[in-house]
Amino acid sequence: MNKRARNRLIGVTAIILIVAFAFVPLMMTGGAKETPVKDLAAGGNATLVGARVKVTGAVVAGSWDKNTNPMVFKIRAEGATSGPEVLVTYDGSAPNTFGSDTIAILTGTLSELGSLKASEMITKCPSKYETSSASDTIAEALAAPPGSPIRVQGFIKPGSQGAANASERFVLASKADGTGDSFPVAFTGAMPSGANDGVKVIVFGKLENSIFVATDVAVSTN
User: Fold this and answer.
1) Is 0.85 surpassed by the pTM of this model?
2) Residues 174-181: what's their mean pLDDT?
3) What is the mean pLDDT of residues 93-107?
């Protein structure tokens, strides 16, 4: 091979590699383009309408109804307490870690600015830890006046965890194997990282009609 042909081959190879590397990010996300919330929100980038995108955002508290099907909710930029929002329609099954303030990674098609039709959703759990000191036992909570704000320690009963839109999110038991005193917990927030079956947690809220309505859940540090 002469020098001119060799240089031509090297040039063609370089072009092929450049093009290939440009498509790697798209292939890794199923052809979806990583896009920030602000570009998908109303007033964002209109050229993205109709495109398949991937976006990460926090579920806006109070923006979703557990009884809707498909699920409809809003997200805003991770860590933001205000700012641009995107309305999401998702007809899949909500992960049991889904809830208000959950960090959701969504893939779908932008039907119009500010509206995403998602076909895939992955959630990231926030880290929340509390000490169990000064927390009531389940037996003490059951004996407390109904509707009294309390914090209760217990274990997540194995096999009891459900989705955020279920009437009962999990069952809190006095023992790690799920035996002993217990009551069901209703909770629409984001379950904390590490809140697995048999794990000791602290729940905050009120016991109403034999169901503990929780405003927050944290993993116990002791």
Assistant:
1) no
2) 96
3) 86
Residues forming beta bridges with residue 159, ordered by sequence position:
none
The torsion region of residue 102 among left (phi > 0), alpha (psi -120 to 50) and beta comes to: beta
Closest CA to 48 of 108, 132, 125: 108
Reduce the DSSP state of residue 148 to 3 states and report it: coil
Q: Which of 101, 102, 88 is nearest to 41 (CA)?
A: 88
Structure tokens at 197: 């079956």
Q: Which pair of tokens denotes residue 16?
A: 């092929």
Question: Peptide bond preceding 36: is omega within 30 degrees of 0, i.e. cis?
Answer: no
Give the whole-angstrom CA distance, residue 128 versus residue 61. 17
The tokens for 17 are 């590699």
Task: Assign domain 129-220 to its CATH superfamily.
Answer: Nucleic acid-binding proteins (2.40.50.140)
Which of 102, 126, 100 is CA-nearest to residue 215? 100
On the question of pLDDT at 29 being above 50, the answer is: no
Same topology for domains 32-124 and 129-220, yes or no?
A: yes
Q: Class for domain 32-124, per CATH?
A: mainly beta
